[in-house]
Amino acid sequence: MDKELWIIANWKSNKTLQEALEWVEFVGPKIERRENIQVVVCPQFTQLEEIKKAIMVGSYPLLVGAQDLSPFNEGPFTGEESAKDLAQFVSLVILGHSERRNNFGETDEMVTQKVKQANEARITPLVCIQGLETPIPDGAKLVAYEPIFAIGTGNPETPQNAEGVAKEVKKGMEISVVYGGSVDAENVAAFVAQDSINGVLVGGASLDAEKFVKIVEACY
Ligand code: PGA
Question: What pLDDT score was predicted for residue 82?
Fold first, then answer.
């Protein structure tokens, strides 16, 4: 497959640093370097620096992403991670995930602010939409279509419906669209085979290093 593809591992609040490094040392050497495929791992904040180092030392074709960032510049915002600081370690950030919207009160306005912060720091903002009703802020570079019913349930959207949403999103905009929600090594090929889908955002199935390698291999 020659089109642009993103395969993004969203670890959420899982893995200790030790487990995270073991994953990188297992997955890194098994991933082929391909022009059109970007493989991104998104660990917890505390692990970003060590993961980035391990990838550089091993020269692995992996990028590092964050799962969130501050809507503000650096300053008096206790507990927040500024885009300026994160930019040392990450090239992508997941924004507006439904778990953040539902558990942490993240609003569309906050997502818009975060997209701005990411772009100013040259971090690629990946905005999660839960359906076509979710607004996509100006400056979003990538969109993940993640219907709530499909997240962590083993009940993915159909590739045809995901393609329909991706096509609609792309109508008004020059943007890449990935699909997320119960993606695994068995179903990933059917999603990336769709014309308008540029990859996958993988939660649960990305935690197991062997399973994740199989997901990447299914996209070659
Ligand atoms: P899942 O999660 O693959 O475990 O369904 C996807 C996500 O929340 O990004």
Answer: 98
